[in-house]
Write a structure and sequence with these properties.
The complex is a heterodimer. Chain A is mainly beta. Chain A has one helix at about 5-15; strands at about 30-35, 35-40, 45-50, 60, 70, 80-85, 90-95, 100-115, 120-125, 140-155, 170-175, 190-195, 195-200, 205-210, 220-225, 230, 240-250, 255-265. In chain A, about 5% of the residues lie in helices and about 50% in strands. In chain A, the strands form 3 sheets. In chain A, strands 2, 5, 8, 9, 10, 14, 15, 17 and 18 form a 9-stranded mixed sheet that branches. Chain B has a single domain (about 20-170), classed as Sandwich (Immunoglobulin-like), CATH 2.60.40. Chain B is about 10% helix and about 40% strand. Chain B is globular and about 45 Å long. Classes of the chains: A mainly beta, B mainly beta.
Chain lengths: ~270, ~170
């Protein structure tokens, strides 16, 4: 569904095929904060983390929080309070003790592969350095590298920029319009980068929450410009979901997939 | 009337260059709802480009026992975005307790802490109210500064705010 057919062809030709994301990957992954624009001397946001079909209904399974990163307004990581994972969602709290913008993200990366050994199917997970764990006699080896980022932003007081700095790795969104200064009807600009470089011609999905109550999902499909920018316009106030994914032939014969999802709140003015 | 004259006179002493004056009347309507809390209200002046040039008031639970009343200030969305989020609350002369339903007369002299000296031009008086478990409303009154003589303008809210009357004097 995501990988380009040509990539599969290349992969097969060299004996290593990009692993196509399974059905589970097609679910929307999101972090839904209790509020995005906060006032006061300090505040706490509670966040639901789930992979679901409907937005933002936790109808499928919880998002694991092992790879949760919270970056504070000073650019330093801070420790969220993990409440736990239930059948359908995970929950955590973030205590906002300093004014400014916080970035809440689940960032994962790694490689996965499938191969056969003496006719038996095997599954492998690891890093690029651990590729040698796949026995040389393995056949039908298919390996891919996956980077995923699922995030959201919250601001106590005035918005700040420090936490928004990209890591330079994987598919990322650099907000041109501040992600906690979004208003329904006002165009907002975001820039997508892959390993810090502009992601041109990237397909981006933008959809408002509340899909369960609409017959038409109302998905806006947008394409980034040469500099990776895309303009979002929320017709009405609400929580919105944005998703993009990128598949490519890696530097070696290993396929690569990077995905990005975020929840953005557009407020009424 | 006597009071007005006296006020104008003091204003004159404080700022010898003709200081304008602004009188405001803000009506908070009485609502028949099962759970009523006084609204949070922000009053400010914007210039032609939408920049806030003066904060006249922010009425909220300034001394809520055991809880930070400024927690809900961001619900005054327009004010919060244009000004509130950049302020360190409380702001002297601006922060004030919430007010009960009724008429609330206010008066500001140009050059005072609240009403900064205004350059000639087009302005808007903005009054925004938001009520806990209630609604939000923004009432706008455009005006020109300085006024040619005493001028009065008014606008009405439909739910969270009643009549807002603005009288300006050069």
């Amino acid at each position: 569904m995501f990988a380009k057919p040509s990539l599969i062809a290349i992969g097969l030709a060299v004996g290593l095929a990009a692993v196509l994301p399974g059905k589970a990957e097609a679910h929307r992954r999101w972090l839904l904060p209790s509020a995005t624009v906060l006032s006061g001397d300090s505040a706490t946001v509670s966040v639901d983390a789930a992979a679901s079909n409907e937005l933002f209904s936790f109808d499928h399974r919880p998002m694991p929080l092992n790879d949760l990163q919270v970056i504070g307004p000073d650019g330093q990581p801070l420790q969220p309070k993990i409440i736990g994972s239930g059948e359908h969602r995970s929950v955590f709290d973030v205590s906002l003790q300093q004014p400014g913008t916080y970035r809440l993200a689940i960032v994962n990366g790694g490689m996965m592969g499938f191969y056969e050994l003496n006719g038996e199917p095997r599954r492998w997970r690891g890093t690029r350095a651990q590729l040698n764990q796949i026995p040389p006699e393995a056949t039908n080896v298919r390996v891919s590298e996956n980077n995923g980022r699922t995030e959201t932003f919250v601001t106590l007081g005035a918005p700040t920029e420090t936490a928004l700095r990209p890591s330079g790795s994987g598919l990322e969104m650099i907000p041109v319009t501040h992600p906690n200064d979004l208003v329904a009807g006002e165009p907002a600009q975001m820039r997508f980068v892959i390993d810090g470089q502009p992601a041109a011609g990237l397909e981006v999905e933008f959809v408002e929450g509340g899909t369960r109550y609409r017959d038409e999902a109302g998905i806006q499909t947008l394409t980034t410009a040469a500099d990776g920018t895309v303009t979002l316009t929320a017709p009405e106030a609400g929580m919105y979901y944005i998703e993009a994914s990128h598949a490519e032939e890696g530097p070696s014969d290993i396929g690569r997939r990077a995905s990005y999802t975020a929840v953005l709140e557009f407020l009424p003015l | 009337m006597q009071k007005t004259l006296l006020f104008a006179a003091t204003g004159l002493i404080a700022t010898p260059a003709a200081a304008g004056e602004m009188q405001l009347n803000v009506e908070i309507p009485r609502l028949r709802v099962s759970e009523y809390h006084n609204p949070y209200v922000a009053l400010w002046i914007e210039d032609g480009s939408g920049k806030v040039v003066s904060n006249l008031g922010a009425w909220y639970d300034v001394d809520l026992k055991g809880e930070d009343g400024s927690k809900w200030l961001s619900d005054l969305r327009t004010w919060w975005r244009r000004s509130g989020r950049s302020l360190k609350m409380p702001v002297n002369g601006v922060s004030a307790p919430t007010k009960a339903p009724g008429q609330h007369p206010l008066r500001f002299t140009e050059g005072s802490r609240q009403l900064k000296k205004l350059a000639p031009g087009s302005y808007k008086l903005q009054v925004e109210a938001v009520r806990e478990v209630g609604g939000r409303e923004l009432v706008t009154i455009p005006f020109q500064w300085p006024p040619r003589g005493t001028q009065t303008a008014s606008a009405s809210g439909s739910k969270e705010l009643g009549d807002i009357r603005l009288t300006i004097k050069p």
